[in-house]
Write a structure and sequence with these properties.
Length: 123
C-alpha cells in the first residue's frame, strides 16, 4: 500500500494550497481517507476525514470553513483544499487511510500513512 501526498509549499497568510493524495495497493472505496498534521514540537493532530461509505465529513474546529476535503473514488485520490491559510497551519501534513472507519479522528486507528508534505505559511 502506498499513499503519495503532494501539493505542499511555502505561502503567505491568506493564500491557498491544495494537497492531494494518490492511493495504490488498496481497495480505495473501502477506506475512510483523511489528513493529519504535525507542527514542530507538537503531537500529530487530526485535520479532516471523508468516509468510505456515506462520504461523511469531519473537520477539526480550527479549519472549519477554510478547508475542504474531497475524494475521487475512480481516480483513487483525495484532496484537501486549504483557503485563508494562517501561520498556525504550518505543519507537515500526512495523508491517512482507515479501512471501513466512520472517521479518522484517532491517529492510533489509522491503517496506512503517507510520507507527509510540508506546508509553511508566513505572516
Amino acid at each position: 500500500v502506498q499513499l503519495q501526498a503532494s501539493g505542499g509549499g511555502l505561502v503567505q497568510a491568506g493564500d491557498s494550497l491544495r494537497l492531494s493524495c494518490a492511493a495504490s495497493g488498496l481497495t480505495f472505496v473501502r477506506y475512510t481517507m483523511g489528513w493529519f498534521r504535525q507542527a514542530p514540537g507538537k503531537d500529530r493532530e487530526f485535520v479532516a476525514s471523508i468516509g468510505w461509505s456515506d462520504g461523511g465529513i469531519y473537520y477539526t474546529a480550527p479549519v472549519k470553513g477554510r478547508f475542504t476535503i474531497s475524494r475521487d473514488n475512480a481516480k483513487k485520490t483525495q484532496s484537501l483544499q486549504m483557503n485563508s491559510l494562517k501561520p498556525e497551519d504550518t505543519a507537515v501534513y500526512y495523508c491517512a487511510a482507515k479501512a471501513y472507519g466512520r472517521n479518522l479522528l484517532d491517529a492510533s486507528t489509522v491503517d496506512y500513512w503517507g510520507q507527509g508534505t510540508q506546508v509553511t505559511v508566513s505572516s
